[in-house]
Structure formats: structure tokens, C-alpha cells
Amino acid sequence: MLGGGPDWCAMLDAVSAVRPTTALDDAESRQAPRVSVVIPCLNEAETIEQCVSSAIRVLAESAIAGEVIVVDNASDDGSADLARRAGATVVVEHRRGYGSAYLTGFEHAAGDYVVMIDADLTYDFAEIPRFVAELDAGSELVMGNRMQGVQPGAMGLLSRLGNPLLSGFLNLLYRTPIGDAHCGMRAVRRDTLAKLDLQSTGMEFASEMVIRASRSGVQMAEIPIRLHPRGGESKLSPFRDGWRHLRLMLVYNPTFLFLVPGAVLFGLGALIMLLVFAHVPVLGRHLYIHTLLGGSLLVVVGAQVIGFGLCGRAYGVYQLGDRDPWLQRMQSRFRLEHGLLAGAAVTLVGLVFEAVIVVKWIVRGLGGLAEERLSVLGATLVIVGLQMFFTSFLLSIMGLRRRERRYDGGR
Q1: Residue 91, Cα to own-chain centre: how many angstroms?
Q2: What global pTM score does this model have?
Q3: Which of 165, 239, 340, 367 has a CA that sits 20 to 30 A from residue 355's CA?
Q4: Minimal CA–CA distance to 231: which of 400, 46, 23, 24?
């Protein structure tokens, strides 16, 4: 420096060196969580502290940067305060329900991976690193399987019988590789949650996650774990919760719920009507017209149920983003106009039959006319044709949402 004046640069460096650390600096220096452990909680004062402490300890011992989020489902026993005191981030969800709690927890999770685990000590928190390792290996959803590791007193008789049945039925409908679809310990990549688009608010949330994963092509894995006797009071209702799981499985599978029964009804009704017109003595000749009406009823109901099934599958593709190769092949071969023409043709044939009856009636001087079988056939064709016509329009309307999404950057 000229003239030996003060070294202002050195002085500024010294001031900067002793500048107090700000909150922003702390935030930048903290490591972002890699794993978010989400624990739903409804009146679990007996166990929640131990759960939070165990999760924090396991993450620390495994050198996994993580956070513990407890979603308090409007507990009235002080569970939220106990969880907060143990070191968890507590989020309150006033809407009761297993699914509601998890959906709220997912919204607050910051980790790349989300580990789901109950607050009743039935699952061992020391298993968390195994789930993380499976996600690291490429899986998008990792399920625990309790059925070979149930400890004495950990699962009641109804659950022991019901869980394998429900899981087996789910696997039958959706061809998933999961043997225990209702295990409460599982892990998922956070970016996979957007693909799943989960909606259920109750216990059926567990089934929905597996179903949506299967329908969306999510890579799933399953690892065996142990199930311990729970602490505190159980919130499960085997019959009610079992029905909610079963109901969801059916609703998500319009083929099994609608198309198969509809095809059976339609085929049986058509066979009965054919036998009547072939003069096969079905239930005796004096019951021909009654048998024919029964067959017509089956055909009409079957056609309507088939239409419901097609609309259900279309809803899964257009609104839920399901993959449905069969429906996509049908769409590539048939357009709205094909359905409209087919429906109009069937309706026209039915109207021709009815017109023939009316003409004969007029020719005979408006006298009595015994054309019951032809009348029933004509009416059946008109009804089925109209169903085909308007179902085609409905399917086309449902497809409009798909085309609109292309402009919004959606799927």
C-alpha cells in the first residue's frame, strides 16, 4: 500500500470471517432428506414416542439422511405432542382415515424415498434400510410380506384367513407379484406417487396402491418381514375393512365386474331366444312366450352391462392413465361412426320387424294378430341397437378428455 495506510481489503476479509452464520446459511448447509418416514397416527400415545425415536435412531445408524413425519389424524390423547417431543415433524389431518393420513403425509414429504410404517410397533423400524436398498436397486414400490413372519398373538384368525384370500383375489384380477397386498410397511419413490395418483381415504388405500402400481407399470418388489403384536388399541374392523378392499378391487376392474357378467347374460339370453325360434321345447310349448321374454330380458340387461364395462375401461385409460392394450387395439380398428352405424342397423332391423307386424295388423282389418315372438324380437333389437348407439357416443365423449390433455402437457 502507498503511504503505509490501512489495508482495507484485509480488514474486509477479517470482518467477513467473523460474520455470524445466518439462518439461510444453516438451511444451505443442512443435507436434504433422502428418506421420509411417514407414520399415520390416531390415538397412539402408548407407542408413538418409541416409534419416532426408533425411526430417527435407525436412520442415524444407517447414515441415511432422513426425516420423520407423523400425520396426526385428529387424535385426542396427546399423540401429536408426544411425537413432536420425540423429534418428529407433526402434520395434522382432521379428516379421519388411513388413506387421508398418508395422502397428507406424502404432500409434506421431502425425501426422494417415502417409507410407510404404522405407529403401533407391529413393524420393526430396523427394516427400513432393507426397503431403501431395494429402491436403490431400481424398484419403484417395495412391499413387506408379513405372512411367513407373524409372531404369536400378532394377527387374529380373521386376518390370517382374510388377508391371503383378499391378496389372492387381487393377484387374480390384476396379475401382481405381491403376496401380501395389505402389509402396512412399504416404501415408494416420491416421484412415483404422481404416477399412482392415489385417491382412497380409508383402509382400502393399501389395495389401491398395489392396483394402481400394477396398472401403471410400476416396478414392484416384495421382501419378507416380521409382524409383532401391536401396542395400544386396534382400529381395524375386519368385516368393514375387508369389504372396502373387495369393493375397490371390483370397481377398479370393469372387465370382471361388468364385461364378463354382461357377456354371460347376453349369451344366455340369445341362446334362449334362438331355441324358442327354433321350436325347441324350452320349458314346454305353452311357455314359449314367457321363455322368450326371459331371454329378451337377459339380452337387454347383458348388453347394458357390457356397455358399462366398456365405459369403465375407457374411464381407466382416459381419466386414470391406465394402460389397456386391448382397448387401444379396439380404438385403432373401430371409430365412433362404426358404433353408430352398427347401433343404427340393429335398431333399423328391429323397427322393420315391428313395421311388418303393424302392416299385417292393418291388412287384417285391425283385428287380432298373434305375432308375439316377432314382436318380442323386434323390441329386443330396437333396445339393444339404441344402447349400442348411445354407448358409442358416451365412449367418444370420455375420449375428449384424453385429447384435451395433450394441449395442457398432460398424459
Answers
A1: 24
A2: 0.74
A3: 340
A4: 46
Give the count of alpha carbons within 13 A of 385, CB side only.
18
And the C-alpha cell for 130? 432393507
Give the cell for residue 249.
Answer: 378391487
Cell numbers found for residue 393:
357416443
User: Beta partners for 224?
Assistant: 145
- Can you point out the beta strands (E) in 126-254? 141-145, 186-189, 220-224
Per-residue pLDDT of the chain (411 residues; tens, 9 = 90+): 334 444 444 443 433 333 343 333 344 335 689 999 999 999 999 999 999 999 999 999 999 999 999 999 989 999 999 999 999 999 999 999 999 999 999 999 999 999 999 999 999 999 999 999 999 999 999 999 998 888 888 887 777 888 888 898 999 998 888 999 999 999 999 999 999 989 999 999 999 999 999 988 899 999 999 999 987 677 677 778 888 888 889 888 888 999 999 999 999 999 999 888 887 765 555 567 888 899 999 999 999 999 999 988 887 776 666 666 777 677 767 788 888 999 999 999 999 988 888 888 777 766 555 577 888 999 999 999 999 999 998 888 877 654 444 334 444
**31: CB partners within 8 A, 6+ apart:** 65
Angle among Cα 357, 293, 352 to the nearest 5 degrees reads: 25
Pairing of β 35-41 and β 113-116:
parallel
Q: Which three cell numbers stand for residue 228?
A: 409383532
> d(Cα 183, Cα 206) in Å, to the nearest integer?
8
Beta-strand relationship, 66-72 and 220-224: unpaired
How many other CB atoms are found less than 10 A from the CB of residue 401?
13
CATH 3.40.50.620 given to domain 32-251: no
Query: Distance between CA 31 and CA 261 in Å, rounded?
Result: 56
Q: Which three cell numbers stand for residue 134?
A: 431395494
**205, 263, 270, 274 from 324: Cα distances, Å:** 22, 19, 29, 34
**Partners of 69 in beta bridges:** 38, 89
Please report, as a single letter, which amino acid is at residue 140. E
- Output phi, psi for 92, to 5 deg: -100, 125
Phi, psi dihedral angles at 91 (to 5 degrees): -120, 135
Beta bridge partners of 245: none
Q: Kindly report the length of the chain.
A: 411
